[in-house]
Design a protein that fits this description.
Layout lengths: L1 H7 L32 E7 L2 E4 L7 E2 L4 E3 L4 E4 L4 E5 L5 E4 L38 E3 L3 E3 L5 E4 L8 E7 L2 E7 L3 E3 L12 E8 L2 E2 L10 E3 L2 H15 L5 H14 L3 H9 L8 H13 L3 H17 L3 H19 L2 H18 L2 H12 L3
Parallel strand pairs: 9-16
Antiparallel strand pairs: 1-4, 1-6, 2-3, 2-5, 6-7, 8-10, 10-13, 11-12, 11-14, 14-15, 14-16
C-alpha cells in the first residue's frame, strides 16, 4: 500500500463522469500551482455542478474533473449534485447535499507533487524545418527495451539514417519513414546506460538542434519492478480507459518516463479532452524540450477552461503560457498578455498568494 500511496501523492486520479459511485474505501500540480505543506485532494464531479472557494478567496470557481482541494476549502454543490472527492489517503469522500466541507482528513508527511516545484526550463527547441527534430525518445527514461523512435519530416527527404549511440553501442539503419521501432535483432539497450538517438537526412543532422540532455536510458531492474507493482495496483482499480491512462501517465512521469507518458495520453480518444489532460501533456512536451507541442496543448487547455467558465483552470493555463512565452519561446508580447490575463483571473478570485507570486516573478523579467 505504501508504494501505491507514493504514486497517488501525485494525486491526479481523474475518474470519468461515467464511473459508478461505490461507497468504499485517487494528481499532480498543474504548472506553477505551488501549494505546499498540506494534503491535496481531488474533486470528481459525477452529476450536476458545484463551485468551490479556497481560504482567503472572495469568489467561487467551478469544480471540474481534477480540481485540487484542501481542508478548509468551501464547496457549494448545486441541488442534485453528486461529487466524489478523492482523498490523498486513497479514501473516497462523498459530498452530500447541505455539506460544504472537503470530506477528507489531513494526511501526515510531505506531499510530493509531480512538477509541483518545477519551472518551465529555458530551452528553445527547434520547430520542424530543414533538419530532423527528434520527437521521441528525448530527455526521458524508458521502460520498454524496444522504444518507438520518432522524428519530424524534412521536406524533400526520401531516406533517413537512424543511429542509436551509447557508450558501447552504435546501431544504425536506414528508413523512408519518420518512425521506426527499435528491433529485436538490434543490440539490446542495457538498463541504466545512457543513449542518444540521432537522425540524418542528407547533409542535415538532428544534432543541429543544439539542446543538451536529449538522451534516454532504460530503468534499472529494481526500478522497473517497482513501477510494475504500482501499475498493477492502478489497473486493479477497475477505472475506465481515460482515467486509467491518465493515472498511468502520472505514474510513468513520476519515474521520468516522459516519452511513454506522452504516448499514453496521446492515445486517448479525441473526445476525452479535459483541461487537466491537456495541461499535463503540454508540460510533458515542454519537459522534453518540444516547446511548440507544449504551446498547442496549453492553448487548448486554456480554451477548454474558458468554455466551461472554470476561472481557476483558465488562470493556471494562462500562468503556464506566460512562463512558456517568456522563458522558453521568447515572445515578450505574448508573455505580457498572459501575465495580465492570469493576474485578472486571480484578482477575480481574490487569490492574493498567486497574485504576489506572479507579480514577484514579473519584476525579474527583462
Amino acid at each position: 500500500m505504501r508504494g501505491f500511496r507514493y504514486i497517488v501523492t501525485l494525486l491526479l486520479i481523474l475518474l470519468s463522469v461515467s464511473t459508478p459511485l461505490k461507497r468504499a474505501g485517487a494528481q499532480r500540480s498543474a504548472p506553477f500551482f505551488r501549494e505546499e505543506g498540506a494534503s491535496i485532494h481531488v474533486a470528481v464531479p459525477v452529476q450536476g455542478s458545484a463551485h468551490f472557494k479556497r481560504k482567503g478567496w472572495k469568489a467561487y470557481s467551478l469544480v471540474t474533473l481534477g480540481t485540487f482541494l484542501r481542508l478548509g476549502d468551501s464547496l457549494r454543490p448545486k441541488g442534485g449534485c453528486e461529487m466524489i472527492v478523492v482523498c490523498s489517503s486513497l479514501r473516497l469522500g462523498y459530498v452530500d447535499p447541505g455539506k460544504w466541507g472537503v470530506p477528507c482528513s489531513e494526511e501526515p508527511g510531505p506531499i510530493r507533487l509531480f512538477f509541483g516545484n518545477s519551472r518551465i526550463p529555458p530551452t528553445r527547441g527547434s520547430r520542424p524545418g530543414t533538419f530532423p527534430v527528434i520527437l521521441s525518445p528525448r530527455g526521458t527514461r524508458l521502460l520498454t527495451p524496444h522504444p518507438k523512435l520518432r522524428w519530424t519530416a524534412v521536406p524533400g527527404a526520401t531516406s533517413y539514417t537512424v543511429i542509436v549511440r551509447g557508450s558501447q553501442l552504435q546501431w544504425k539503419t536506414q528508413t523512408g519513414s519518420t518512425e521506426i521501432t527499435y528491433p529485436d535483432n538490434a543490440p539490446p539497450l542495457q538498463p541504466g546506460v545512457s543513449y542518444k538517438l540521432i537522425v540524418q537526412a542528407g547533409q542535415r543532422d538532428s544534432s543541429e538542434e543544439g539542446l543538451a540532455q536529449l538522451g534516454f536510458r532504460r530503468l534499472t531492474l529494481e526500478e522497473s519492478e517497482q513501477l510494475h507493482r504500482d501499475e498493477e495496483k492502478i489497473m486493479a482499480l477497475g477505472l475506465g480507459k481515460v482515467p486509467r491512462e491518465l493515472l498511468l501517465a502520472h505514474l510513468f512521469a513520476a519515474h521520468q518516463l516522459y516519452a511513454e507518458a506522452i504516448e499514453r495520453l496521446e492515445s486517448l480518444p479525441a473526445t476525452s479532452q479535459e483541461p487537466t489532460l491537456m495541461r499535463l501533456t503540454g508540460e510533458l512536451y515542454l519537459t522534453t524540450g518540444l516547446a511548440w507541442s507544449s504551446e498547442e496543448r496549453l492553448l487548448k487547455a486554456r480554451f477548454l477552461s474558458q468554455r466551461s467558465n472554470d476561472i481557476e483552470g483558465n488562470a493556471i493555463a494562462s500562468r503556464a503560457l506566460a512562463h512558456l512565452y517568456s522563458e522558453t519561446i521568447g515572445n515578450p508580447r505574448e508573455a505580457n498578455a498572459y501575465i495580465r490575463e492570469a493576474l485578472d483571473l486571480y484578482r477575480q478570485l481574490g487569490d492574493q498568494k498567486a497574485i504576489q507570486e506572479i507579480e514577484q516573478w514579473q519584476k525579474g523579467l527583462p
